[in-house]
Design goal:
heterodimer, A: alpha+beta, FAD/NAD(P)-binding domain, 6-stranded antiparallel β-sheet, 25% helix, B: mainly alpha, 0% strand
Chain lengths: 548, 168
């Protein structure tokens, strides 16, 4: 069978396209590397969801090499040695199944960072080829279709909205949120109520949040979390126009006359190779793996990889810069019964420093330490560099679980695109199918660290004002593997960009890339809302293409 | 998914306190060496002794847990080899370890932890002992949720019907 559209990947970047096309009558096929998990299959099993490689490929079978600077030289280390995977959520719906759903839009000036703040030496900052107004209708569509809960906070950096309120009211909050609000006001900050991609009210297809206390990193058993699977793929499947092929690892796209003709995939269970033909191909396998597929799809017309005669594929990869901070709360700050409430959300962010007069700042989200008891207890076995056990360790664990609670903050600021952060492939390192794996060079710009530290100080000020004990923070240069973007930036000039403004490859007539790869700069927020919005935008564009 | 292990097999295995080695997940026996696990079980009770309301490693099924999870394909093979290696090294240095009383075993571990291999081995063993204390009982540890009850921890719902994220 020849499909109208073949999509590689099934996460946020794929689902908007699949939904738009399938519901407009196009025959769509998705090739997903992992299995199809439904609500009934998910549980709150800390071992399976956070301690083992269950929802990502086994690193002995497929891995990445991470290229880091050691003593002035770039050194590649396979992730099966470092035991730190850069895969995320390889099941239908992708990593959106496991997100925490902190949802922030980009702001108008994120689309013109170079124009507003100018160049930074060593960084490849460019303005986007679309502006906020072009994406706003799709941000709004995400709120309705995918489901975003919250309350709009009016403050100086609030982005323009075409609707007044979020379609779903805020989720239930922990009593500490009121303390945070008071401290924000005392230190002169605006208490920003964090929107979440989690339903606070049931719909006819999805149950509301049931406050399980095990949210981030876990699949949702009520359908409340606005994963690509729940919110867009399930409705698209209902149309009868979407086919999802699971356990399908796409190794190459074949091309003829600068048009993709077929996708070659391996059934990871039978190890057999198959082909899929379609009119249009869309890649959305998350930034690193999408770049890998293009770079490995070499042909006579594209000796450096598909759509890569510009040598731009894989370049300007970005992550989210920033870090984390913590503070300890006990019964001296609020009654233990209140403090120990479980499941309800903190939902506060510090957004006042998203922009400053001199430089681009970022966002700080506040949240309680995740429930995960194994992770919590295991952190305690080292004390001042010495291993402890027996009664000493047992006492420490007991006090941690029963007498205090840790409030964290997570900082998001721009990971500036540089020449030292990119994806490449190297024939020396191959997966079990003989396909070169992606190499990820993870160089960072020192400016990112300065901004992170600036934001950490502001957030620490809040925790200290609240009376938290042991307040500290850590700003790092190691990239968070789950927040990937860039690598196929869009732009008007085919020499300096891979995709045009519609996320179609400049050089290939029928090839689109719709995960976070298109983003030339990332903004200072988790990318998911923007990826969903852009996927719906491109899906609408493709559905309007006249058949030739 | 990878190796299929049903809830039934896991629960059956977790019930066999004294004879944990008798019923292993199918296909697991060839990879499991029994002798080091006897040493490991003994050490786990020093790392996590009975202490007021705190359950001992034997009570929460630490060794059952380790045998179960180490036979699954998701377990890091190098970790298993290192667990064996450390147990052998401890026995080399303390041939009578298994018959020592609690205090002498504790002193031996104190000494052993002063070596690099000893410290790393105890750290890894503590890591998996804490997994056994606080993981879902489906894996054979945290028997009757004793670890969660001790810490007044309420797990999230639903609990797993199958281990290792297998599709239900």
């Amino acid at each position: 069978m020849k499909y109208d559209v073949c999509i590689v990947g099934s996460g946020a970047g794929a689902s908007g396209v699949a939904y738009s096309l399938a519901t407009s009558g196009k025959k769509v096929v998705i090739l997903e590397r992992g299995d199809f998990y439904h609500r009934k299959d998910f549980s709150k099993d800390e071992i399976a969801y956070t301690k083992r490689e269950i929802f990502t490929p086994n690193l002995k079978e497929c891995y990445h090499t991470i290229e880091d600077l050691e003593d002035g030289k770039w050194v590649k280390t396979p992730t099966y040695i470092s035991e730190s995977t850069f895969f995320n959520g390889n099941i239908v719906g992708g990593s959106s199944n496991f997100m925490s759903g902190y949802f922030h839009r980009l702001k108008p000036n994120d689309f013109r960072l170079k124009s507003v703040y100018g160049e930074i030496k060593g960084a490849n900052i460019v303005d986007w080829v679309i502006d906020y107004n072009e994406l706003e209708p799709y941000y709004e569509k995400v709120e309705r279709l995918i489901g975003v809960s919250g309350e709009v906070t009016e403050y100086k950096h609030q982005e323009p909205r075409s609707t007044k309120d979020f379609p779903y009211p805020p989720l239930k909050e922990h009593p500490i949120s009121k303390l945070i609000d008071k401290s924000f006001k005392r230190v002169g900050f605006t208490p920003y109520k964090t929107p979440r991609a989690i339903l606070s009210k049931s719909t006819d297809k999805r149950e509301s949040c049931y406050y399980s206390n095990y949210c981030g990193s876990y699949g949702c058993s009520s359908g409340a979390k606005s994963s690509a699977r729940e919110s867009l793929l399930n409705p698209a499947l209902k149309s009868g126009n979407l086919t999802i092929i699971t356990n399908a690892f796409v190794k190459k796209l074949n091309e003829k006359n600068k048009k993709v003709t077929e996708a070659i995939y391996i059934d990871t269970q039978t190890k057999k190779e198959h082909k899929i033909k379609a009119q249009i191909f869309v890649i959305a396998g998350q930034a690193v793996e999408s770049c890998r597929l293009l770079l490995n799809s070499k042909s006579k017309n594209f000796p450096n990889g598909l759509a890569n005669n510009s040598n731009q594929v894989g370049k300007n990869l970005i992550f989210s810069a920033g870090g984390v901070g913590t503070g300890q709360f006990d019964s001296t700050i609020m009654p233990l019964n209140d403090l120990m409430q479980e499941g309800v959300f903190v939902n506060r962010s510090l957004c006042d420093f998203y922009f400053t007069d001199k430089f681009k700042g970022g966002v700080v989200d506040f949240l309680f330490e995740h429930a995960n008891p194994i992770s919590k207890a295991n952190k305690l076995r080292w004390q001042n560099g010495k291993l402890i056990w027996g009664k000493e360790l047992q006492k420490k664990i007991f006090n941690k679980f029963t007498k205090r609670k840790q409030l964290n903050f997570e900082i998001f600021n721009d990971w500036l695109p540089t020449d030292n952060c990119f994806v490449s492939v190297d024939n020396k390192y191959k997966d079990i199918y003989g396909v070169p794996v992606a190499n990820i060079r993870i160089g960072y710009h020192p400016h990112d660290i300065k901004v992170g530290k600036f934001l950490a100080k502001k957030a620490e000020k809040v925790l200290k004002d609240m009376g938290a004990k042991d307040v500290n923070s850590s700003i790092g240069s190691y990239p968070p593997a789950n927040l990937q973007a860039g690598g196929c930036r869009f732009g008007d000039d085919p020499k300096s960009s891979v995709l045009d403004k519609h996320c179609k490859a400049h050089e290939v007539e029928n090839l689109f890339v719709t995960d976070g790869s298109f983003m030339p700069t990332g903004g200072s927020v988790p990318y998911t809302w923007t990826i969903y919005a852009n996927s719906l935008r491109v899906g609408e564009y493709i559905s309007n293409i006249k058949e030739q | 998914m990878k190796t299929k292990i049903t809830r039934r097999v896991f629960i059956a295995s977790s019930l066999l306190v004294g004879t944990a080695f008798a019923l292993l997940p199918q296909g697991a026996k060839k990879d499991i060496k029994i002798e080091p696990f006897k040493v490991i079980a003994s050490v786990q009770d020093i790392l996590f002794p009975k202490n007021g309301n705190a359950p001992s490693a034997s009570e929460f099924g630490a060794i059952n847990y380790l045998i179960n999870v180490s036979s699954h394909s998701s377990f890091v093979k190098d970790d298993l080899l290192f667990l064996y290696k450390g147990a052998n090294k401890l026995m080399e240095e303390n041939p009578n370890f298994l018959t020592m009383n609690f205090n002498n075993q504790s002193n031996s571990l104190d000494e052993f932890s002063k070596t690099k291999i000893g410290e790393n081995w105890l750290s890894l063993l503590l890591y998996y002992t804490i997994e056994a204390l606080l993981s879902d009982p489906i894996y054979g540890g945290n028997r009757d949720s004793i670890g969660w009850k001790w810490l007044n921890h309420h797990t999230g719902e639903p609990q797993p019907k199958k281990p290792f994220g297998e599709i239900v």
